[in-house]
Amino acid sequence: MTTLDERTDIGHRTSLQRLLDPRSIAVVGASATVTKRGYQAVRSLRESGFAYPVYPVNPKGGRLLGFEVYPAINQLPFGIDVALIAVPGAAVPAALRECAAVGIAAAVVLANGFAEVGSTGADLDEALAAAIAETGIRVVGPNTSGTLNVSSGANLVGLPNVPKGPISVVAQSGNMLLSLVNDNNVTKGPGFHAYVGLGNQADVRYDECLTELARQPETGVVAVHCEGFVDGRAFLTAAAAVVPDTPIVMLRGGRSEVGRRTAQSHTGSIAGSDAVATAVLRQAGVELVDRSDELAVVAGALATCRPIEPGRKVVILSDGGGHATLAADALAARGIELARLTAQTQRELRILLGDAAAVGNPVDVAGATDADPRVFAAAAEVLMRDPHVGLVLIIGLYGGYHLRFDPGLRELEDATADRLLGLAAEHGLPLLIQSCYAGADIANHDRLRAGGVPVLASIDHAVRVVAALDRRGRVLSGADDHAGLRLPLPAPQGAGTGRIAGTGLLGEPAARRVLADAGIDTGGWTFARTVEEVVAAVAGYGRSCALKVVSPQVVHKSDVGGVRLDVTAADAADAARAIIDSVTGAVPGAEIDGLVVAPMAEPGIELLVGATRDPIFGPVVAFGSGGVLVEALRDVTFRAAPCTEREAGEMIDETVAARLLDGYRTLPAVDRHELARFLVRLGDVVAAHPEIVELDLNPVIATGSRIVPVDVRIVLSESSSGDQCE
Q: Which residues contact 440 (CB under 8 A, 6 or more apart)?
């Protein structure tokens, strides 16, 4: 058996590194038939300039496109990096075992008919999983479009003429790569470094690709298309580690109910709650886009542009009021503030642009550039000196003046491009240009793009890029705690130790003790087993109380008459008996363990605070408007747990409920820091106890620094193992 040349460097690279940057490739199922992937793969490797060994495998042997064809896998040289498996699904497990036997590190499996087809593919899926587990070979797919390394020419996708650049892509759909490349070409974006089509994620996952691609110096950004994670928690961990150095942009599929059904049939993935996913991905620093045509544009800009420095704002420099107004409206819709220019800046602009110009923000040159486009550079210089300006957005016709007005303006526009690049570098500020002529073949636009300044035709695209640069700046401003994520999980402080006994709904007294053990105040309360104990407890508090039934058969107490409010010592006995009669009547056979007696809460703001164990992302904390407004407002946001106090504060700020916390009208002000600490402690509880699948405190009454849950509901997993979703 032959051995690969030393240049393959087998011993110094992991299997995943060899997969994503191969130095030798076998094509199992190579074919002389032009329409088959086994032929197209060999042709693509040759035409893409792959400079390393290629080993086609076909029982007929011979030669194919100048390469020697090996009749069997077991006759290949030992230690090839990657095998492209272009054989029917039923033959894949055996092929993987043969590949592993000759030291092949990884495989790209094209075949479909696995998990994505449902139960009919279950047996084949199990056979594939067994082969992977048995051999340790790393597998991309099945049902994958392939992998691509533009820098080396390792083209196992077959898409020709992919421009080289800083964008690396991880997706579940080959059509997404085609879409991204086309969008990049249309907008004349910076190009691509690598692509991984994960398919069904039988082995290699998003988080692994994210980590490895970010390590490669050619990657300036990772663009992700996702229909569902196998391990969302691992992705959050990887993203949180990668984002300070490498931006991540994501387009998600399967966000709607219809989309989730489609995603499941397409890739075998199961998409989780969109609200949870959106919140925790943003928490990890991921830039989420909503439209397919935004992914390439935003990714390209984040790979080449400086972010906006926090505290600085955007200025619009336009040669037309209509476009300027549209841009200002679009920025406002995304919550992006325009810079308030200093009086000195406005005076200098007035001198430069004349009396007809608008020198506030937006700045409208009012025709001053028609005869001399260099005025754009002069105005940009004035604006970049303003301490409030963090980005200059040029809107209108720039770059196309020589086409619109006078060919003689071309040299002036070229000189302006060079000056703008110099100014951006000198002041360390991002510059972005929207031009009606961005689609034309214009040298000064190409010069700007080569210098890291996007030139876009669409105002909407330009504004979306500004929003991404603004958020990128805010993410990086706290690079040591950039998203608040404390992942992987630390040992939560004060959250109690050991597994909570029981399964299903935990009785409220036990649930309150769980929180108390974690240092969370649940207010005064007493568990009374008899009517007499209820009366004594109410009398002992010396004030009106709430009574709540404790029964393993009752989840929603109010629905069955299991709650009485404003109960005094005089009517406590009657109220307790009424609760028991109502519950036993509504739920025949219900076991009444007793009643919780708690003093009525002081007036305050009703909040929803809770936690759940998301099937994709693991433990998450929820916060929003509580009480009777929960269903009406659906004002709730989420964070992966455990989270930091900073992250909890940002979580609070996202909600409508936040508007009430500072003493709105007659409502009491709430200590936001104490509320944030409350959320952190709750996150620690659910993170420390994987057996908790749901923790609901609704409502929580907040007033001043007092954050007291009125009701405490904990649901434990039915499994006794308590395995955590990570």
A: 400, 403
Q: Rounded distance, CA 175 to CA 179, Å? A: 6
Please count the CA atoms within 13 angstroms of the CA of 165 that sit on its side-chain side.
27
Where do we find the tokens 């993987």? 96
Cα–Cα distance between 526 and 580 in angstroms, integer?
17
Candidates 15, 28, 8, 160; CA nearest to 78 is: 8
CA distance 507 to 342: 62
Strand 313-318, strand 389-396: pairing: parallel
Tens-place pLDDT, residues 271-317? 347 889 999 999 999 999 999 999 999 999 999 999 999 999 999 99
Domains within the chain, CATH numbers bracketed: 6-140 (3.40.50.720), 163-304 (3.40.50.261), 313-481 (3.40.50.261), 530-592 (3.30.1490.20), 605-716 (3.30.470.20)
Q: Which letter does DSSP use for residue 600 in this model?
A: P
Could you tell me the pTM of the whole model? 0.90
Spatial separation of the C-alpha atoms in residues 303 and 217, rounded to whole Å: 12
Q: Angle at which helices 374-385 and 343-353 pack, to 10 degrees?
A: 170
Q: Residue 536 is encoded by which pair of tokens?
A: 């004594």
Q: Distance between CA atoms of 281 and 655, rounded to whole angstroms?
A: 17
Those residues whose C-beta lies under 8 Å from the C-beta of residue 625, and which sit 6 or more positions away, are 606, 607, 608, 633, 635, 636, 655, 656, 657
Average pLDDT along the chain, 726 residues, taken 10 residues at a time = 46 92 98 96 96 97 97 98 96 98 98 77 91 97 95 96 97 92 96 96 96 97 93 95 97 66 37 80 96 97 97 95 94 96 98 94 92 94 98 95 92 96 97 96 96 97 98 82 48 59 90 93 95 97 96 90 96 97 95 96 90 91 80 81 93 92 87 96 93 91 92 83 38
Phi and psi for 160 in degrees, rounded to 5? -85, 160
Per-residue burial over 352-368, b if 16 or more Cβ lie within 10 Å, else e, is: bbeeebbbebbbbbbeb
**Amino acid at site 474:** R
